[in-house]
Amino acid sequence: MRIGEVAQRAGVSVRALRYYEEQDLLQASRSPGGHRHYPDTAVGRVQLIQQLYAAGLPSRVVRQVLPCVDSGEAPPKLLDQLEAERVRVEQRITDLLTVRDRLDGVIANTRNPSAECFHGQ
Amino acid sequence: MRIGEVAQRAGVSVRALRYYEEQDLLQASRSPGGHRHYPDTAVGRVQLIQQLYAAGLPSRVVRQVLPCVDSGEAPPKLLDQLEAERVRVEQRITDLLTVRDRLDGVIANTRNPSAECFHGQ
DNA sequence: CTAAAACCTGACGTCGGTGTCAGATGCAAG
DNA sequence: CTTGCATCTGACACCGACGTCAGGTTTTAG
């Protein structure tokens, strides 16, 4: 599978895939002429990478985490790192929940201004 | 209250506060000599701004959302915008939950490798 | 065989929220 | 009045995940 097709299937740009390779997140074999060639599993991997990015993990962390998610286990040395990331993710989740509730409050109150106005934080 | 104290209390840098003013997120009166002076409510407002940033909202959106969160209601014209943001936030939450569960899976499996290896997505 | 489409490697641009530095002032304490 | 910290206004630096352009090569369709 060539880079264009992977990009299209995974919903990312060709540039992004090259960047992932540069960051050692995604490997590709090469044709005699130098063109990248990917296995079918690449699409799923790219989507996984996107998910981790969406969670706010930077490349260097993704690089560590990826093989663990693949294999389902981690070298003990990375456990602390993983747990630290878990904590961060959890924190972001609670932040987002708070913001969501605030937005909900404003929306509901605007739709139905009769209700009591809670301005608590 | 002067800028240094606000920064310290809110846990952000002085630079950030100036930036917020530049972005019309936070107003300050000025002393005769030009120094910023903030009301006590500024600290809470800054924390709110931080929360919105943490949720991934960019400055221009925060600028629209802030007065609504203050007043508890929004001009109807902004309702669509607010709901769009709500959807985005919700999406990010589910992304984060997925990632969290993946991390949990790896962590649990590493701690107790005996268990069955679920590699579901 | 040839033209077009896809791909290649650099390299520089972008955007947003800050850090940081320079050089000039304001303000409070002795 | 002076000293010294806080603050002021620019302005440039940074980082990360790409976008984008240039100029050249490979692959594929006809």
TrEMBL record, chains A, B:
<keyword id="KW-0238">DNA-binding</keyword>
<protein>
    <submittedName>
        <fullName>MerR family transcriptional regulator</fullName>
    </submittedName>
</protein>
<dbReference type="InterPro" id="IPR047057">
    <property type="entry name" value="MerR_fam"/>
</dbReference>
<dbReference type="InterPro" id="IPR009061">
    <property type="entry name" value="DNA-bd_dom_put_sf"/>
</dbReference>
<dbReference type="InterPro" id="IPR000551">
    <property type="entry name" value="MerR-type_HTH_dom"/>
</dbReference>
<dbReference type="Pfam" id="PF13411">
    <property type="entry name" value="MerR_1"/>
</dbReference>
<feature type="domain" description="HTH merR-type">
    <location>
        <begin position="1"/>
        <end position="68"/>
    </location>
</feature>
